[in-house]
């Protein structure tokens, strides 16, 4: 295989249909940011929305902004905008709370939809909060249990017995970037009589998602990674329309009430997606998210996926050619169709290697025990950024600069 040189890589950027979107982001010219799968880069529009909401609406109109500035309906408005990116028709997504809280809501609702079944199935390699929340849900339901793929059975498909009520599964694995076949696995789960709950944290905004077409039951996701909503930005939850009439979530706060301003003593849930709200939502964070989502209005999701695959494929090719024999091992799927928008390489000294990379202006991250993880956000990354990152990685490994004591792993870091 002939590797592309800098001229060929610059030509890739010149032909990129998404290249104009980079100017909408606030990026340091001295860095290559490959950590958008942890925290996305801010957009200029997000900062402008945040300033406007704080200065003109909160300071200027105070409580009148709940109606005058549309604050009260913002969770539904933003939910529908995210819905377009994840293949959900309007009225099935609401922006609210955090990913952890929304997983709790979805799992409880799923269990209630399958009375008599007591098992939740999840992945042992899931992001920890998914498992912690699943454990919490099980602890509140007498007789319920949590079974894990990779511990209690080799694969989710092998664990779908008549006691399984809900399956919590990540569309893209947070560490390896492995991509699940949503439609196929959802069909298997539902054929076994269970409910499919998808975690989209590492796929929303990174690749096309088709919740409705796949027949998904529930989905949750965050907005601060590839959607660039900002640190602590509110999460979202999807509830298929067919479930909304009977699905019940346990956090029956007043924002989920059918008539919140009637101030009634008893709770009656909204008949639609609003039922999956809980308390008063973080409006300033939502306004930043509103600005961040504006950039997506004209984005072709097929073009997004094509660029994502081009970036990750180029990275793998260059790393394996230029860093051969330097201790790296690919942990992500080699087949592009099975990969999300990130690439993971294992290395026995991953922590100091990553710190040395960061010191050179290439920002990725480390995942215990030995993973170098690189996220590729197609809206603002260029192919030349990939080349620069690989050059830095090659230099760090060949010079062994990662052995510098200042890059040693602190004892407090686990």
TrEMBL record:
SUPFAM superfamilies assigned: PLP-dependent transferases (SSF53383)
Reactions catalysed, as given in the entry: 3-hydroxy-L-kynurenine + H2O = 3-hydroxyanthranilate + L-alanine + H(+); L-kynurenine + H2O = anthranilate + L-alanine + H(+)
GO term, biological process aspect, one: quinolinate biosynthetic process
HAMAP family, A to Z: Kynureninase
Family: Belongs to the kynureninase family.
Classification via PANTHER family: KYNURENINASE
Record's function text: Catalyzes the cleavage of L-kynurenine (L-Kyn) and L-3-hydroxykynurenine (L-3OHKyn) into anthranilic acid (AA) and 3-hydroxyanthranilic acid (3-OHAA), respectively.
Protein name: Kynureninase
Taxonomic classification: Bacteria, Pseudomonadati, Pseudomonadota, Alphaproteobacteria, Rhodobacterales
